[in-house]
Amino acid sequence: MSKELPSLRVQIPWVESPFFETELKAANLDPVTAEMVRNYSEQGYVIIDPQISDELIDRAIAQIKPDFEKHKTNRLQDAWQDHEAIKEIAMAPRVMEILEILYRRKPIPFQTLNFSTGSQQRTHSDSIHFNSVPERYLAGVWIALEDVHDGNGPLHYYPASHRLPFYDLSILGLKGSTSSSIEDMLANYYIRYEDFIEQLVAQKHLDKKVLNLKKGQALIWSANLLHGGETITIPGATRYTQVNHFYFENCAYYRPMQTDMALERISIQKVTDISTGKDVQSNYLGTPIKHVGYSYKMYLPESVMRKVIPSNLRQWVKRIINK
Q1: pTM of the prediction?
Q2: 294 in Cβ contact with 265 (< 8 Å)
Q3: Phi, psi torsion values for 160, nearest 5 degrees
Q4: Alpha-carbon span 155 to 62, nearest angstrom
Q5: Under a CB-based contact definition with an 8 Å cutoff, are residues 143 and 241 in contact?
Q6: What are 81-123's pLDDT values in tens digits?
């Protein structure tokens, strides 16, 4: 007779936990929800009805159309700050409900991206742009604001690729925290990351799927799922979509492309909860992180410290730092 092991609640989303099967059995979910959770665990994505009305979708498009024309772009970041309909879509109750089921933590919508045409973006993982400690508490939600088909640049994705390791810039011999600017990062670092992902997909023989959705449908994907945008084959075709990115409560939030962990150069991200308009403070396993951006440390040899700084002052500084 086998001995039953105690339940372990590890600091990783339960859908990616090594103990997922045990947790799923104990969750006592209805069959439909259990199937959705299992599919998300195994494939890294799920297609849902976000229960967003056509009226809200049409209102959102009407609000952002002038911005696309004004800025001569097909991509708007954080339009929720100016347009109430975009904000409402980012906070769709059904989406928030499903995310809480999938991650067992309160979801925090923190970024919106709106597109008027297909992005045609190369394959990537969102984890290179945003990440958390504990890892993988990040999700993307891609909502079709009109029918998406082969001609207008649909999304592509690689099922189960979320199970791959998270690869940051260090695997390419790059120190993300040393780039001189965002422009330098994108021009010289990010393109090398995209090249790496392209070779990885080929070497792993990953199976690509193309996502054709009807207006109002949505895709939820896991932090590390590889995805990108297909080529637009119908000139002038629109593809209105909205992407919402979500973190989850009680994590530290950082920018991997600007971070070198071993050098203690961690780019803590400023996160604003779209649903409240308030900033969300990072914390590491219950310890608040009070800054955003980089924190700097200066090290002096212990022998020098003893000579130039009195013992009582050293102890006082340590107490202040450790608060």
Answers
A1: 0.89
A2: yes
A3: 70, 0
A4: 23
A5: yes
A6: 999 999 999 999 999 999 999 999 999 999 999 999 999 999 9
